[in-house]
């Protein structure tokens, strides 16, 4: 059904059709007098809490895979370094970056699939890649050390492609369900608890899993280090499987059913209209990931400065302590969002992170002699970032674009962010080796302040609005520019045609 033909048919029909805040509603007398029967009403009441929040939670919960996989590199790098003398810095960097680079492929490609194929079918492919890649890592084998390292790097690439796909799929489905079930600003906290909260929980979960497995194989001086990293990868395969059934049972939100464009997508018109929003969200992602991922990955090296000679168990315990501040930051962000706009919170988070980074860089020699001071400031940086931009980037990226291009725009923005993570990780290592660890904090501080400027000029804040206005605005824009294509899923279009035929009779 084309936009132009639909518009003409609706204008000529005796039955008028209008769009309210959530659904396409007919104003016929039949619609006005119809109501749910007693059984349907009872069933609706029974759905209750899960009907309202379950879809949001299920849609976004896969983000925990990303958080867990983020926590693995720093632990695995320590274990592999202890096990293999040939595991050099270059392999560490490639191992860390393999996930990040493949994330870009997954985010861009699955963002496209999310809009064209649908959120639900695409979930199956992303889950399969995560499971296959994690199993390959757990079972990695080669006749040489170098061969094993490359096996792990390639397998992590497969995992990363699936995890990258989770970003646009989880965020768009969770946001659309939240927008449908919960009005305006009240939808933000459930969305955060279904998106960034699982990410922030993933890294501590990786640390906890490491400490449990370490204790199970003999503790600090175990000779079975290989069993530890293999088990962690295996757990990474289990996590997405636990929620796949529930995700497969979920349905597309009405906004997707009514506004999806699966053929002849007007990307050029979309770019002309939303280029500023896209530049803002993509720039925000790039700068945030540029500092977030390297600091997560190199947290172990910071601990070794604060606590010289720390064993792998002590490193795991302190990493758990540091990463837990990300969880606290997420929860603090859920409180602040009730009083301050998202845009201001992101800007303040970037600025505070920049200030803390400059303090740590300037006082690094002093802090390195006082372990508590260095670790506390490093933890505060983690808290501030998660209470600010890391908490809201998914909201901004999924709430700045209409349904028909939401997955694509989100995926490309997030992909650019992961490019920033890969670049940051590649820069931090040689910078740290040449100019010392304090230089990385100066760089982080400067990048964070640039991030505040980018958000101020380029990121919109629609948190107080029902997002259906974006679809209406975009559809009107397409009509005004002469675009004539099909809108809505096939099943939904067929239902609308049937309704029109019934009404005309």
From TrEMBL:
It is found in: Membrane. PROSITE patterns: MFS. The chain crosses the membrane at residues 123-143, 149-167, 188-215, 227-248, 290-312, 318-338, 345-367, 373-392, 441-459. It holds the Pfam family Sugar_tr. The keyword Transmembrane helix applies. One of its GO terms (molecular function) is carboxylic acid transmembrane transporter activity. It comes from the Eukaryota. It is a multi-pass membrane protein. Coiled coil: none annotated. Gene3D superfamilies: MFS general substrate transporter like domains (1.20.1250.20). The keyword Lipid biosynthesis does not apply. Keywords: Membrane, Transmembrane, Transmembrane helix. GO terms for cellular component: plasma membrane. Residues 55-463 form the Major facilitator superfamily (MFS) profile domain. PANTHER family: CARBOXYLIC ACID TRANSPORTER PROTEIN HOMOLOG. This is Major facilitator superfamily (MFS) profile domain-containing protein. It comes from Wickerhamomyces pijperi. The lineage of its organism: Eukaryota, Fungi, Dikarya, Ascomycota, Saccharomycotina.
């Amino acid at each position: 059904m084309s936009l132009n033909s639909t518009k003409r048919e609706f204008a000529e029909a005796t039955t008028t059709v209008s769009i309210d805040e959530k659904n396409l509603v007919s104003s016929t007398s039949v619609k006005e007098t119809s109501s749910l029967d007693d059984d349907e009403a009872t069933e609706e009441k029974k759905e209750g809490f899960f009907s309202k929040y379950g879809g949001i939670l299920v849609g976004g919960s896969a983000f925990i895979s990303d958080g867990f996989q983020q926590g693995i590199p720093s632990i695995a790098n320590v274990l592999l370094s202890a096990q293999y003398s040939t595991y050099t810095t270059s392999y560490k960097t490639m191992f860390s970056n393999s996930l990040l680079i493949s994330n870009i492929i997954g985010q861009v490609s699955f963002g496209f699939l999310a809009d064209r194929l649908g959120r639900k079918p695409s979930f199956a492919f992303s889950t399969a890649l995560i499971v296959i890649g994690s199993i390959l890592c757990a079972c990695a084998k080669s006749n040489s050390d170098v061969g094993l390292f490359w096996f792990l790097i390639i397998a992590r690439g497969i995992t990363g492609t699936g995890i990258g796909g989770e970003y646009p799929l989880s965020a768009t489905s969770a946001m659309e369900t939240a927008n449908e079930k919960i009005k305006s600003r009240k939808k933000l906290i459930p969305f955060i608890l279904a998106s960034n909260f699982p990410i922030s929980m993933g890294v501590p979960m990786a640390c906890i899993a490491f400490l449990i497995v370490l204790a199970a194989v003999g503790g600090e001086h175990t000779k079975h280090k290989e069993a530890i990293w293999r088990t962690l990868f295996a757990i990474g395969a289990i996590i997405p499987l636990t929620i796949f059934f529930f995700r497969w049972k979920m349905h597309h939100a009405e906004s997707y059913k009514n506004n999806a464009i699966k053929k002849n997508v007007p990307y050029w018109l979309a770019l002309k209209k939303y280029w500023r929003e896209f530049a803002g969200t993509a720039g925000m992602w790039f700068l945030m990931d540029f500092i977030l991922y390297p600091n997560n990955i190199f947290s172990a090296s910071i601990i070794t400065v604060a606590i010289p000679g720390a064993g792998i168990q002590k490193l795991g315990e302190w990493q758990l302590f540091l990463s837990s501040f990300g969880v606290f930051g997420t929860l603090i962000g859920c409180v602040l969002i009730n009083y301050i706009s998202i845009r201001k919170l992101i800007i303040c988070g970037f600025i505070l992170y920049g200030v803390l980074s400059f303090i740590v860089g300037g006082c690094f020699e002093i802090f390195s002699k006082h372990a508590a001071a260095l670790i506390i400031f490093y933890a505060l940086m983690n808290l501030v970032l998660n209470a600010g931009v890391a908490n809201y980037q998914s909201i901004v990226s999924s709430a700045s674009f209409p349904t028909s291009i939401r997955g694509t725009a989100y995926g490309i923005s997030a992909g650019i962010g992961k490019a920033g993570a890969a670049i940051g990780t590649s820069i931090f290592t040689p910078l740290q080796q040449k100019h010392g660890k304090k230089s990385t904090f100066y760089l982080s501080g400067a990048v964070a302040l640039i991030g505040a400027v980018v958000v101020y000029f380029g990121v919109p804040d629609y948190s107080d609005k029902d997002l259906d206005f974006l679809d209406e605005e975009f559809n009107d824009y397409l009509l005004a520019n002469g675009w004539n294509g099909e809108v809505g899923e096939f099943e939904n279009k067929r239902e609308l045609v049937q309704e029109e035929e019934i009404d005309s009779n």
